[in-house]
Amino acid sequence: MRLLAALLVLCLLLDGTLCVRVPVNIPPSVSVGDRNPSLRTAVFALGSFWRAEAVFGCLQGVERTTAGYAGGTKARPEFRSLGDHAEAVQ
């Protein structure tokens, strides 16, 4: 039982801390017209966009991630009232 409790505490402590990206220099914001033409955009709708954003942000080749709501008809979706939107990572 103590081993199970210790593993649970360890998992909770490590949640979201397994990947840390530290850029040497942070590039200025890139306007749409200045983007590298070889870059592509993908949107993934998952359970928790904050955790997914952290995971995708650690992948090699990913330049930027943004968490938000995708699809749906509500003008301003919020956490408490998503309507028909899905939590997503771009």
Distance between the termini: 41 Å
Portion of residues in beta strands equals 5-15%
| Biggest β-sheet description | 3 strands, antiparallel
Taken from the alpha-carbon principal axes, the silhouette is: flat
Q: What is the residue-mean pLDDT, rounded to a whole number?
A: 68
EC number: 1.8.4.11
InterPro entries: Met_Sox_Rdtase_MsrA_dom, Met_Sox_Rdtase_MsrA_sf, MsrA_MetSO_reductase
GO molecular function: peptide-methionine (S)-S-oxide reductase activity
Pfam family, one: PMSR
Describe the structure.
With about 90 residues, the protein is of the alpha+beta class. The chain has a domain at about 40-90. Helices cover about 25% and strands about 10% of the residues. The protein contains 2 helices and 3 strands. It has helices at about 1-15, 50-55, and strands at about 45, 65-70, 85-90. Strands 1-3-2 form a 3-stranded antiparallel β-sheet, covered by helices on one side. The longest helix has 13 residues, at about 1-15. It is an enzyme of class 1 (oxidoreductase). This is peptide-methionine (S)-S-oxide reductase.
Tag the structure with descriptive keywords.
90 residues; flat; alpha+beta; single chain; 3 strands; 3-stranded antiparallel sheet
Sum this structure up briefly.
The chain is built from two helices and three strands. With 90 residues, it is an alpha+beta fold.
